[in-house]
């Protein structure tokens, strides 16, 4: 099966060769590299530098190196400041730079969520629509904030990060998972997909997380498997579960068909990113 991980901060795994060995051990064919070193004092994601006007321009040297050395195994996403004077050209680069595939919007701070709600990220979505670029967006428990953007920019492929809910351990156990109905409601928008990452953290029990699997089945029913994509975010989730555990409870369950698994575990991400599988690779 062609298994493609929709998010790993791969640089945090150590050397490139060590990370590739870890992929092989788990059975991951390829992944979307999200380069992240740390946050600076202003809560901006590094690496990057400040422009004279105050905008922060992020750079992706390690993701670029991985994509150039192993183009069949790595694509990567980028983040750009909406205030960058070269915003349109930067977003356009996602269509021209090898293996650069998508944009990610991460409001992150209370101020950032407030600005997002006020429409401040419209320039990013407008540029994404002009250049036909997919946008990943992190809005835990706040997915209603997406609706104005989805109405204004219906041609932008939008992927909601991390199940769309607040990732507090054991949230499913108390049966009061705030925001999940709002996530399911996004299925009405045909351009929206859901990144199924960090879900085991929500479980009230141990592997193979039957309560989380039941939640996934509801998501698949609402969106269809073609709009659900698995991601581990392994470097951020390994305090709770292993990379293998994040994958195998889906890969090995009899409650999903082989075709559904093929979409969720790789084909949906490849389709949205327009990243073809290598010749001879099976999607199921």
TrEMBL record:
Q: Output the Gene3D superfamilies linked to this UniProt entry.
A: Metal-dependent hydrolases
- Keyword Lyase set for record: yes
Q: Cite the Amidohydrolase-related domain residue spans from the record.
A: 66-266
Task: Tell me which InterPro entries the record gives.
Answer: ACMSD (IPR032465), Amidohydro-rel (IPR006680), Metal_Hydrolase (IPR032466)
| Domain of life according to the entry | Bacteria
Q: Which PANTHER family match?
A: 2-AMINO-3-CARBOXYLMUCONATE-6-SEMIALDEHYDE DECARBOXYLASE (PTHR21240), CATALYTIC_ HYDROLASE (PTHR21240:SF19)
Q: What is this protein called?
A: Amidohydrolase-related domain-containing protein
